[in-house]
Amino acid sequence: MTGVRSTPTHRDGSDPDPTGPEPCHQGPRESPGRSETARSLREVIRAAGDTRAALARRLGIGTTDAAAIDHLVSSPDPLGPVELGNRLGIRSASATTLVDRLVQAGHVERTPHPHDRRRIALQVTDLAFTEVVAALSPMLDGIERAVDRLTPEQAAATTAFLREVTAVMREYSLGSDPSTH
């Protein structure tokens, strides 16, 4: 099996095999038969993760805090602490701690839920929204410049493609198999 050592090492970590250790990493590997478009899209997805970390650094907050703000800003429906925790993949107690921290920092406020007065909704403050937009501006401007280079037909095709890919990714994240639709 490639990448697994078949020979023991000395206590000091040196390799008793004079030919050297077997390689543990062979560089990036792509599935055979995948299109250049799919590979490029996977690179965009990886870059999106890097972007969230960069946003957190620019705002001086943790990546989980930045992810929480992103979910709250982009959600079409009001989110409470439980829904936010579910989206972030964290437990209820951790979500409560996160929300408390965001409220204390002035990034989020608790408001009555617009459809269910027994619940609370989390709202990003105007100041936090302004800070996020300012931090993202250089990237968003670059994306707009790339979009401006597309013809109207290319822009329409790109939009349709990205919406379809988004739907596939959402189906996958909900546990269904998008290839069966």
Notes on the structure:
This protein is mainly α and 181 residues long. The protein is 56% helix and 6% strand. The protein has helices at 36-59, 63-74, 81-88, 92-104, 126-148, 152-173, and strands spanning 108-112, 120-124. The chain has a two-stranded antiparallel sheet. Helix 1 crosses helix 2 (63-74). It is globular, with a radius of gyration of 22 Å. The two termini are 36 Å apart.
Helix-strand layout with pairing:
Elements: H1 36-59, H2 63-74, H3 81-88, H4 92-104, E1 108-112, E2 120-124, H5 126-148, H6 152-173
Antiparallel strand pairs: 1-2
The computed structural class is: mainly alpha
Biggest sheet record: 2 strands, antiparallel
Percentage beta strand: 5-15%
One letter per element, helices H and strands E, the order comes to: HHHHEEHH
Distance between the termini: 36 Å
Query: What is the radius of gyration computed over CA atoms, rounded to a whole number of angstroms?
Result: 22 Å
> Which geometry do the CA atoms define?
globular
Question: Quick recap of the structure?
Answer:
Helix content is 56%, strand content 6%. It has 181 residues and is mainly alpha-helical. Mean pLDDT is 84; it is low at 1-15.
